[in-house]
Amino acid sequence: MHVIHLSVECFPLAKVGGLADVVGALPRYQRKLGLDAWVVCPFFDKAFTKERVFGTIHQGSFMQGNEKLDYEVLKEESDPLGFPLYLIRIPGKLDREEVYCYPDEAEQWIAFQHAFLHWITAAQIVPDVVNCHDHHVGLIPFLMKHAVDFNHLSSVKTLFTIHNGQYQGWMPWSKGILLPAFDTWRWGLLDWDGLINPFAAAVKCCDAFSTVSGGYLQELYRDANGLEDLIQSESQKGYGIVNGIDDEYWNPEIDTLIAKQYKKSAVKSGKKSNKKEFCEEAGLDANVLLLAFIGRFAIEKGADLLPHIIENIFSNSDYKVSIFILGSGDDAVQAGIAELLDRYPGQLATFFGYNETLAHRVYAAADLLLMPSRVEPCGLNQLYAMKYGTIPIVRGIGGLKDTVIDVEEEGGYGFVFSDADSQCAAEAVLRALEVTADPNALQKIRQREMSLDFSWDKSAKEYIQLYDQL
């Protein structure tokens, strides 16, 4: 079976969030199971593309409104990712340094989708399934069925994988002229509340849609940023498949980015060594419990709660604790955290920005990881943490609820709280500090969580079963 994954992010080509980690790992695990999986992404002017050798396998052009766009399809020649990677480059549109933040994103993603369909049509490539990841490529199921030049692909099955339903790619109908010519009688499939909504169009037109956890699928029926009725009406097409992690990259036994590699049997000494080196560099006390936050400073991640949580912990805890924050995003959140650095020297340290290597070191060093998310379709950070013997403290929503069981329940290995507010989160942290202050309890929880299997092996099989079903 031939499956093409279509996405605007893929690690290590271009990463902003968990979408990149999924697309950079899932196809490799699928290929191990015998699936002919490809990945097609936009070209980005980043280190990965500068350091690798790409060959041009196709060139073409098409009209986007009144503008003629030339494109080329590049294929990475050494196959370092474990799957064929194809990049579409369009001068002036798909050749930029950043993934997002440009005012003409709608034009970029329309061009990407049009070029993809133009290429596979010209090259007579007919996959069995096109797996579209998030709204950036949400027009594909519609265009394959109803665009004049591409409806020969209408028999190709489409799976729309929802990584985050809060972002839907809305654009005014004035952008409609930029789309490939389509059956205008079908315009309603593109529309939602008077706008072109690629996310809604994908749900309407795909053969199936999946979410990155079963819990998130249930949440979308209640909160889908205005599309609740649509998700409910199309529920027979919905499937929840929890994300996995790439245990060839996130694995303390073989991780070359951390100070000392360690197995589950040596987690106590391994984490102690990593913690000692990390805390010396961060200016923190390695002899107390270390709590970490890793992620974007975004409202959906609950990052705005962090300053209040930090103050609450330091002012109310009977247990000594250090806190390390790794992230970037909202300026107000960053400023609020920065203000606390002078008040809690030696207790609080930060790195404002994105640093993949540092993230590995934090997971290896930290005792606890906090995720006070308002929205978390799956969450990968808690899975990485548990792989490294770091205990997650999470709000019980979406994929966090699916993957973390509270220690007060049978077989539990984390700390779960219910409300997205600083008081509730701080209370969960204080509860975790009380429990893990006992070295025996800490070791028992670490052993339990590190025995869990959250690799992509199981999830890749579930995706393949869904493809087969389609």
TrEMBL record:
Signal peptide positions are none
Taking every annotated instance into account, which residue ranges of this chain make up the domain Starch synthase catalytic? 2-232
Chain sites annotated for binding ADP-alpha-D-glucose: K15
Keywords per UniProt:
Glycogen biosynthesis, Glycosyltransferase, Transferase
Limits of the Glycosyl transferase family domain: 280-442
Reactions it catalyzes = [(1->4)-alpha-D-glucosyl](n) + ADP-alpha-D-glucose = [(1->4)-alpha-D-glucosyl](n+1) + ADP + H(+)
GO MF entries: alpha-1,4-glucan glucosyltransferase (ADP-glucose donor) activity
Q: Which CDD domains match?
A: GT5_Glycogen_synthase_DULL1-like
The enzyme class is transferase
| EC number annotated for this UniProt entry | 2.4.1.21
Pathway, per record: Glycan biosynthesis; glycogen biosynthesis
Q: What does this protein do?
A: Synthesizes alpha-1,4-glucan chains using ADP-glucose.
Which protein family is named in the record? Answer: Belongs to the glycosyltransferase 1 family. Bacterial/plant glycogen synthase subfamily.
The record's listing under HAMAP family reads: Glycogen_synth
Name under which the protein is recorded: Glycogen synthase
